[in-house]
Design a protein that fits this description.
alpha+beta, OB fold (Dihydrolipoamide Acetyltransferase, E2P), five-stranded mixed β-barrel
């Protein structure tokens, strides 16, 4: 705080208080703005039932086109050939990268071109999106895709049951 002289050369208590008050308000505003920018987005994370339908199970074989290792959910993009010869791109939601790594996935496990079998649950809106449950690799290994966050998805594994 810098003392301020009044018109007669005396330190003005009012001027010092006003300057201190402005500094405090500025510090509070900067703190609030910083916290608002730091706060994680709650809209990105959701419960299973908010977006997916446990009564719409999906099971298909496809080829991985892309893997997104993102939080709060990783996404597999899988090209699925239909009986009529057409192909559909599916987006499969999986757990966080950390959860997947602890379950045996590596960055090399899901490279583009890898054929996989997916078990999961389709999006409520009927789009080509699903919440993944299990993924089977060409060598027969089966890995659990689901989240460990208690999202309410069917068949969530409990710690120590793998």
């Amino acid at each position: 705080m810098v003392p301020v002289n009044d018109m007669n050369g005396r330190l003005s208590w009012f001027s010092m208080q006003r300057e201190e008050s402005m500094q405090t308000k500025l510090a509070i505003a900067v703190t609030i703005m910083g916290l608002a920018g730091w706060a994680p987005s709650a809209s990105a994370h959701h419960a299973f039932a908010a977006e997916f339908d446990a009564n719409k199970p999906v099971n298909f074989k496809g080829t991985i086109t892309k893997m997104e290792w993102t939080n709060p959910h990783s996404w597999l993009h899988v090209l699925v050939k239909q009986p009529d010869g057409t192909a559909i791109n599916w987006a499969i939601e999986a757990g966080t990268p950390n959860v997947l790594f602890r379950r045996g996935f590596t960055k090399d496990t899901l490279m583009p071109g890898t054929e996989v079998v997916i078990d999961g649950y389709q999006a409520k809106d009927g789009s080509s999106r699903a919440n993944g449950r299990d993924l089977t690799l060409p060598d027969g290994r089966q890995l659990f895709l689901g989240s460990s966050a208690g999202t309410g998805a069917p068949y969530e594994l409990q710690p120590g049951t793998q």
